[in-house]
Amino acid sequence: MEIKQLLRDLPKIDELLKEHIVNNELNFTMRTIVVETLRETIDRYRELILSNSIDEYSKKDILKSFLELLEERKGSRLKKVINAAGVIIHTNLGRSLLAKKALENVVNVVDNYNNLEYDLKKGQRGSRYSHVEELIKKVTSAEAAMVVNNNAAAVMLVLNTLCKEKEAIVSRGQLVEIGGSFRVPDVMSFSGARLVEVGTTNRTHLYDYDNNINEDTGVLLKVHTSNFKILGFTEDVSLEELVQLGDEKKIPVIEDIGSGTLIDFSKYGFTHEPTVQESIKKGVDVVTFSGDKMLGGPQAGIIIGKKVYIDKIKKNQLTRALRIDKMTLAALEGTLKYYLDEKEAIENIPTLNMMLSPKSEHKKRAQRLKRKLQSKVKNFKFALEEDYSMVGGGSMPTEKIETYIIKVDNNEFSPQELEKKLRENKTPIIIRISGNEVILDVRTIFDKDFDIIVDAFVSLD
Ligand SMILES: *Cc1c(COP(=O)(O)O)cnc(C)c1O
């Protein structure tokens, strides 16, 4: 049929509202949603007609599409996606995935009443932080610990407690922006601390700190520049030197270590990344880090260090606004438990497992996915190649993890078009484009999702 005719024949909203299926739907669903969905359905048909993708349709087709679209709209907007991009701690895709025990702990705690703020021994009001404090102390060897919403909140709380209306001395080379929303200078000004920048972008010396210490100095702050590295003619003051200076002048040394690595990755062939335990051992007074980066747990900000300071921080009224909820606590406890045995942690915490699982394992998995794709999809070519995955989350910026990828080739879609199509799949598939090629990195794809990927390509075939 002619395009004009097809367009003219598209039913009107009022007409569709009279259809039994639609009318029935109005018994359960808000009218505005039904009308919006009808409009969107018609718009989609109009597009299909204009792009010559269909040359006929029936009212039945339209009603079927309407029901599908309505189903989609009633479903969750926040939903599962498949990470085929090979970035392990993908900030846009929810960072770390929870380990099994963490998930079980969450379900058990939120599905029941619990002792969130109840001391079962004394039979009286308890502290929500007590549940994880002992565990954090054990794992990190710190004297005391406290947990808040995220690491940005942790840094702000620490500075607000120890450095309000005082000066925080920090190296110019560490005034970083992380993930587009954490800017060290901004967080410092929210906290009420005055920023004193010392040194230069590439070189800061101990005397730069020393020369700026006065009666207004509140803390010496070190920020781990987790998402970039300055190479070449650089000089930085070591943690040991800073701690020594702080000790001499009786000024606490605070470290925002960012990623919060509890495992020494150099044992597994990575370049050395400072661990939380090392900072404590070197005598840093207060250390803060994220729960959902390299630690592999829920979003949280963990504050550890000397008891005198942590006690002060716990008493700050701001904690009430920054406190974590029971789901986070349950997830954090479940995650930290694994760290009592490093092997258990690596095996069970998805972030660690994805980082450390051997390349050979992923070769087999990539071969399996490729075979599945080739057996069902005709118009795409799939090639197995070696490549690199990234840690992500502003962690280990220069570290490349060897992996296997599937390169996708076809004559119909450009890489950008294919990226969009896969992103618009019912379960969105997020890929990476390298050069001019679409790439699926199996390191961050689960076996259980292979069939979803195959089906997505089948529907584009
Ligand atoms: C990621 C990061 C932050 C922010 O942590 P969130 O948990 O995302 O709030 C702060 N400082 C450093 C050094 C970081 O790497």
UniProtKB/TrEMBL annotation:
Catalyzed reaction equations: L-seryl-tRNA(Sec) + selenophosphate + H(+) = L-selenocysteinyl-tRNA(Sec) + phosphate
EC number(s) per entry: 2.9.1.1
N6-(pyridoxal phosphate)lysine, modified sites: 293
Top EC class, one word: transferase
Residues in coiled coil: 359-386
Intracellular or extracellular location(s): Cytoplasm
Pathway(s) this gene product operates in, as recorded in its UniProt entry: Aminoacyl-tRNA biosynthesis; selenocysteinyl-tRNA(Sec) biosynthesis; selenocysteinyl-tRNA(Sec) from L-seryl-tRNA(Sec) (bacterial route): step 1/1
Source domain of life: Bacteria
Cofactor: pyridoxal 5'-phosphate
BP GO annotations: conversion of seryl-tRNAsec to selenocys-tRNAsec; selenocysteine incorporation
Residues of the L-seryl-tRNA selenium transferase N-terminal domain: 7-46
GO molecular function, one term: L-seryl-tRNA(Sec) selenium transferase activity
InterPro entries: PyrdxlP-dep_Trfase, PyrdxlP-dep_Trfase_major, SelA-like, SelA_trans, SelA_trans_N_dom
Keywords per UniProt: Coiled coil, Cytoplasm, Protein biosynthesis, Pyridoxal phosphate, Selenium, Transferase
GO cellular component: cytoplasm
Similarity comment: family membership: Belongs to the SelA family.
Role, per record: Converts seryl-tRNA(Sec) to selenocysteinyl-tRNA(Sec) required for selenoprotein biosynthesis.
Name of protein: L-seryl-tRNA(Sec) selenium transferase
Biological source species: Clostridium muellerianum
